[in-house]
Specification:
This protein has helices at residues 2-20, 33-50, 58-61, 80-87, 156-161, and strands spanning 29-30, 64-72, 75-78, 107-116, 119-126, 131-140, 143-149. With 175 residues, the protein is of the alpha+beta class. The chain is globular and about 50 Å long.
């Protein structure tokens, strides 16, 4: 049973990579299967860190490179230390959701495209707030980490430079 589950997982990952690459320009290529799995692990750690009942920001910020950037709505937080301070929940636990649990940050439909050696652009559906993630991740000695974590939307200045970019709704574009 365990072997069968492993093969189903491998087929799912390879299938996702194959279908994810259909719309990719010929000069851009998906990351390797090993890197893809490690990038999926980054997103899993990130989602779990958001949903922790208690966190001083350490779990959340550990998913970012030292010079990482967290962008949403009109906010841009630069550097792991600043991201940690922002993510610190202090003495209050994460609120319980309607179903009696704290979890709720899920993502799917990952497409990871190599843009330089050890650097990838990841586009994925982020179900919390119903938006699309448009991130830059980097391969480090500690594994893949976020260099830039941001939704595929923009504030007024960003939209002036790129009118096709949808506006960020400040109610749904936070972590």
């Amino acid at each position: 049973m365990r072997k069968r589950s492993m093969w189903i997982g491998v087929v799912a990952v390879v299938g996702t990579m194959a279908f994810g690459a259909v719309g990719v320009a010929q000069d851009r290529k998906p990351v390797s299967p090993d890197d893809y799995i490690q990038i999926l692990q980054l997103y899993a750690r990130y989602s779990h860190a958001i949903d922790l009942e208690w966190d001083d920001g350490t779990a959340y910020s550990s998913n970012f490179a030292e010079d990482g950037i967290l962008k949403f709505a009109d906010n841009e937080i630069k550097g792991r230390k600043a991201i940690k301070a922002w993510a610190d929940k202090g003495d209050s636990p994460r609120p319980v959701r309607g179903k009696g649990w704290r979890a709720g940050h899920t993502m799917s439909n990952f497409q990871a495209i190599e843009i330089a050696p050890g650097v990838a652009n990841v586009v994925a559906y982020f179900h919390e707030g119903e938006r699309v993630a448009d991130d830059i991740v980097v391969k480090t000695p500690q594994g893949w980490l976020f260099r830039r974590r941001s939704p595929q939307c923009g504030n007024d200045a960003e939209r002036a430079a790129d009118p096709q970019r949808p506006p960020c709704d400040s109610d749904t574009s936070s972590r």
